Amino acid sequence: MLLYELTQYPVKGVKSTQKGPLVIPEDMQEIEEANLSGQLSKRNNLDIFIQKLQNKQPFVPVGATEATILLKPDPETIELLRQGQIPQKFAGEDGKMYSLTALQKTAEFGGRQAGFSTRDEDAALSSVNAQFAELKGAADAVKITIGDKTVSVAGFASTPGTPKSDFHAYDASGKEVAWISHKKGVPGTAKDFQQYGGLSDRELAAVYKEMPAAKEEINAFAKAIKERTIDGAMPRNMTLARKIQNGRLRGIAVYGNAFGGERGQQNVDLIMQGDPVFDGNKLTGTGPTHSNGERLEDAYEPIMMVRYSSDRNNFGIKGARMSISPQGSRKITEFI
Predict the structure, then answer these.
(1) What is the pLDDT of residue 43?
(2) Can you give the pTM of this predicted structure?
(3) Domain ranges of the chain
């Protein structure tokens, strides 16, 4: 088994339990994409937005569940909106300025209901707990191998927030002892993945501080994409890709933003695809599984990728959605 290089050096200031943005996990991509940028021209979204503004109804921040952003119902802004002119920024009652990319595309704007993206993970968690209860019997805890380590496990629970870990194992005292990232697909292929993580400056800010070479590599990819745009826009029906040279960046995308440090919510022990199953006292899945540090190759190799998406403008390229995704997740037009 080949391991990612430089695994002994975690990103400074990032602990395994941290939930701050870095490389966004696959299950966060719906949240990342589902902001209000480019959405007010669809359905009756503009009317809904104006109504919320006038009625002083708060908006949900991207990645959150509670509505906490209250925008000022400025008459001039409302009149511009009625004329179909969308301001770049909106003044908040808290004195801050907010762009539409900061506002969540909630169900009223055609977004998915909360919990949709965790449906598969919830089903997997229910399944693993049912199997584990039978395996454990009357014991308080039993030894279970998860990835490359064996720990005493009393049960499994959903990991709160939106870290890389979807659910974790805990011991008899309730302490988290192992972390699992679950991917959908039965039996499971790379095409069932959507992405490992994003490539925007916001998502990779902490990585850039410790790995300037990663920023240079990503910027070079963005530059190559721009050379293939048409009038500054990403062509439709085209997917461009490039291999990642920085092994640590590969590891961060796959296992979490604390990769190389202590195992935890942002540095998972096991990537599991499909339905969870126990092979004796070892947790595995009906699809491929990967232990922390395992270097993924072939269809599952993490590569930089860009495709057209109407509501994205990554690196200033209109319609460009850039990500780190499995090589076999979609048909690639050209490696650049």
Answers:
(1) 57
(2) 0.65
(3) 35-109, 116-188+263-291, 193-260+295-335
